[in-house]
Design goal:
The chain is α+β, with helices and mostly antiparallel strands. The protein has helices at 2-24, 219-240; strands spanning 27-30, 39-41, 54-56, 60-62, 65-68, 70-71, 75-76, 85-86, 95-96, 104-110, 114-119, 132-140, 142-149, 155-160, 166-172, 179-184, 191-198, 204-211. The strands form five sheets. It has a six-stranded antiparallel beta sheet, with no helix packed on it. Strands 1-16-13-18-2 form a five-stranded antiparallel beta sheet, with no helix packed on it. Strands 3-10-11 form a three-stranded antiparallel beta sheet, with no helix packed on it.
């Protein structure tokens, strides 16, 4: 009997540990090739040019997604030539561009690669050291990108819901010019936006951003839906009476 109790206790501890580990890792890093996202942003639909690239002081729209330095409500406290983001974004999630010449650049990297997106750092002329934030048109359960450049620095990825709450924060260290993929635990489709900042001495850029977003109903549509449901409920009560 004592052995049975010990076995049961061990099983409970194992179960609770597994649950704690699952809760601690709501975003899983997965092979990029395993992603099934149907949206791929190549930045071929926006103007780019050879280094230092085409400067954008406002929000960049490409492939159905939008891009800027950070989200409204986030703080940017630069460390040398690098942006460092902190704080919770406001509700609802919305992008905010960085100061003039410190937001984003679209670079025509090569004839085979095409355009890539890079964040402009706080020091004039620093390319790829600035933060990049991405807002999806709906919520997605998966996300991936091709990293261009890097000489072994580190990057922090913060995953946010539509109301600005943090889902998870992942640190990639060391960085390498490669493809990266991420998937929401249990396939929950609630990733609305992602912020990325880095400390790579060579700077980094992004291409082939992959996601699969659901459509977000417009406020007017939500109001009409509410009125429709209310009317249906009234009709049912009248029929029942």
């Amino acid at each position: 009997m004592q052995r049975s109790h010990q076995a049961l206790a061990a099983a409970i501890v194992l179960f609770l540990s597994a649950g704690a580990n699952t809760a601690a890792m709501p975003i899983d890093q997965v092979p990029y090739a395993s992603l099934g996202g149907t949206k791929v942003v190549t930045f071929g639909d926006v103007a780019g040019s050879a280094l230092p690239g085409t400067n954008y002081d406002g929000i960049v729209f490409s492939g159905g997604a939008s891009f800027a330095e950070r989200f409204s409500g986030q703080d940017n406290t630069p460390a040398g030539a690098f942006d460092v983001l902190s704080g919770r974004p406001t509700d609802p999630l919305a992008l905010t561009a960085g100061p003039a010449n410190q937001n984003l650049s679209v670079i025509h990297y090569s004839s085979s690669q095409g355009n890539v997106l890079a964040g402009l750092g706080p020091v004039p002329g620093t390319i790829g050291t600035g933060a990049v934030s991405m807002l999806f048109p709906g919520s997605t359960a998966q996300f991936g990108f091709q990293l261009i450049g890097s000489i072994g620095g580190m990057a922090t990825l913060d995953f946010f819901m539509r109301d600005g709450s943090l889902i998870d924060s992942i640190v990639l260290n060391p960085l390498a010019g490669d493809f990266y993929g991420f998937r929401r635990d249990a396939g929950q489709q609630d990733i609305a936006g992602i912020s990325i900042f880095n400390n790579d001495p060579d700077g980094i850029a992004f291409d082939n951003v992959r996601y699969d977003a659901q459509a977000v109903p417009e406020p007017g549509m939500l109001a009409l839906l509410g009125l429709g449901l209310a009317g249906l409920a009234t009709r049912r009560r009248g029929t029942a009476g």
